[in-house]
Specification:
Layout lengths: L7 H7 L2 H4 L9 H7 L9 H26 L11 H8 L3
Helix pairs in contact: 4-5
Length: 93
């Protein structure tokens, strides 16, 4: 891949975002959809926290892959992708 050929739809397809993010095929931009739904306050619902526990590390990994594809070099690998958000979601304070 070169950054000149990397369109949003191409990235969604090549990185298999719909499957990895567990979104229906009818969603045209699953990454943006989920990023726009990121909580700004700590969710009370265990179901909502569990939703992000599954999807947030995948989102972080996809963003890392997009960075690598766009810049054509390997950025430093995150040790725990998304762990800070997960800690915030489940921290009782």
């Amino acid at each position: 891949h070169t950054s000149q050929l990397l369109t949003k739809q191409h990235a969604i397809y090549c990185l298999d975002m719909r499957h990895r993010l567990q979104t229906p095929t009818s969603i045209t931009d699953p990454l943006s959809l989920l990023l726009n739904k990121l909580p700004t306050r700590k969710p009370r619902s265990f179901q909502t926290r569990s939703f992000w526990t599954i999807r947030w590390p995948v989102i972080c990994t996809i963003l890392h892959e997009l960075d690598r594809l766009y810049h054509e070099k390997e950025p430093p690998s995150p040790s725990d992708p998304g762990q800070r958000l997960l800690n915030w979601l489940f921290n009782s304070s």
